[in-house]
Every structure is written in C-alpha cells, then in structure tokens.
Amino acid sequence: MFTTRRAVALLKVFLAVLFAVLVLFQVMSLPGQFRSMAEQSPEDAWLRWPLTAITVFWVLCIQVVVVCVWKLLTRVRDDRIFTEESLVWVDVIVWAIGAGWIVLVGVLGLVGFNADDPGLPLLLFLLTVGVTVVGLLMLVMRALLRQATALRTDMEAVI
C-alpha cells in the first residue's frame, strides 16, 4: 500500500507537469506557431485560425483526460476506486478521446484528399490508429472496472 501511495503521488506530480506544459502549448506555442506559418507562407494564411482552433481543441481533450486520471488516482489512494462514481470519470475520458478522435478523422480525411505529399496523411493516420487503440483500451478498462465494482459490492454484501 505504501508503494501505491508513492506511485500515485509521483504520478500526480508528472500529471501536474504535463498539464502545465499543455497549458503553455495551448496559450503560447500553438497560436504563435500558426501565426508564424501564416507570415512565412501567405497563401496558407487562411489556415491559421482553423488550425489553431483544432489543435487547441485536441490539447483541451488531453487536459480533460489528465484531470480525470488525477481524480481516479485520488480514488485509488483513498481506496474508493471500485465504486459507481469512478465510472463517471472513466466515461468522461472515453468521451474526450472520442471527441478528439472524431475531429482527427475529419482532419485526416480533409488532408488525405488534398495532400500532394504522403507524409502528413501517413502521420495523421498513425495518430488516428494510436488514438483509436487508446480509446478502445479505455472501453475495455471501463468494462473491467464495472466488473470489479460489481464483485466488490457483492463481497461487501456477503461480509
């Protein structure tokens, strides 16, 4: 149990660092990157705001996942993970991944049909496959959490 508490505390530190870096990307790096792109290639300047909005949305989806993982880790630390309330946080993670995946597939379709070079579509396809795997993995983890919650509830009823 002591090791779990240490791991949870360490994981929370890294989640806080990840969240801070994501905020930095969201507020400073991404808008500045697309402003610079618009200045360097004026023919693509119309993409500045759509690309900024899409990438900020993806970062927001990751931030939602980070916050939900933080809440679930708190439940693990307090030995309350196997409850129905934990499923709410897992559902939010699944919905955040799903929302990001839908936008990613849309961008992949748009870029894939208009690209001259296969590099960017392949990179987006790889990213789409990775997000799909993570989303499906979360669905499996959700089912396992539901089963464990039901088993714990049954055991507590017997005891």
Structural account:
It is built from four helices and no strands. The chain has helices at 2-40, 48-77, 84-114, 119-158. 88% of the residues lie in helices and 0% in strands. Helix 1 packs antiparallel against helix 2, helix 2 (48-77) runs antiparallel to helix 3 (84-114) and helix 3 runs antiparallel to helix 4 (119-158). With 159 residues, it is an all-alpha fold. The protein is elongated and about 70 Å long. The model has no long low-confidence stretch (mean pLDDT 94).
Helicity level: over 70%
Shape: elongated
| CA gyration radius, whole angstroms | 20 Å
In round numbers, the mean pLDDT is: 94
The description of the largest β-sheet is: none
What fraction strand?
A: under 5%
Helices and strands in order:
Blueprint: H1 2-40, H2 48-77, H3 84-114, H4 119-158
Helix pairs in contact: 1-2, 2-3, 3-4
Task: Summarize the entry for a quick read.
This protein is mostly helical. The chain has 4 helices and no strands.
State the main characteristics.
4 helices; 159 residues; elongated; mainly alpha
